């Protein structure tokens, strides 16, 4: 679209009521922007705690055509609340808002990094897709019947798991839509322990990320916007819990955890199924599992996918620690696999850069990421030897 594009950096707390209404009207009006991450309430809640937060207001010939909430980490512009922002893009009318490349240029970004961009992306971007379930007006029963026909063995197994859980415990209870901060703190501790155990960067160690989740739980925005918990309790204790974000008809499944001693009964999957059942009865129609099929269970729930893009524009080197780690990995595993490992390191670095605002914390995180990736590569090489 022709016209002169400009951008203005604004504090999210200073947006007018008219601007906030315009933002949400655009998000509601475009099915590609149906995720709660595109609501102004998400941006304003996250901006209270994310260091370096702001919003770029784009104008074409003086008329506002888009908003892009973001955070700065040194020379890098990232989506606001990264690494916890599952989707991002310019909120505005499709025909008028800037593309990814235009937005980066207008914001004068030395590095402009996105991991799940919704909208037009330049050539060279890595393509992925979000995984979605759609519960139509026929309700959960019709949706489940269709899933069971598509994957009979999988869902028969989950039905057996549910019967086994009911037989093993005196009471099995599911609740959806809880806003319990103590329960959320327990989930955060469980996720932190999981990150450490699996060699991933603990995104909650920096503090501000946990504050964002609590703030979203307190949010009471338009169309039911907010964060809440679903929980499975067996004999009164928490067996599985998941934090989700929702708005309008969309329910985004976000941070799950379950007790390892219940693994034989697939408590996380059973909780997801009950969440879909209960939430669909409350009017939710789209259930989003985030980007990628890294978790094998997602394919059994997927009714459709939606494209996203990952790219870093004007990306410099990742720093001395990661360069050294990359050289060591090339020597250890050979050049053929070094590229894949460097991609993994790049993603790990993006998480570290987003979470940690102090240079020393970033350096430590980068060193741990390099050692973890090298150890994983050597382990795979040993298995194949």
Automatic annotation (TrEMBL):
It holds the Pfam family Acetyltransf_6. Keywords: Transferase. GO terms for molecular function: transferase activity. InterPro entries: Acyl_CoA_acyltransferase (IPR016181), BioF2-like_GNAT_dom (IPR038740). Residues 156-299 form the BioF2-like acetyltransferase domain. This is GNAT family N-acetyltransferase. It comes from the Bacteria.
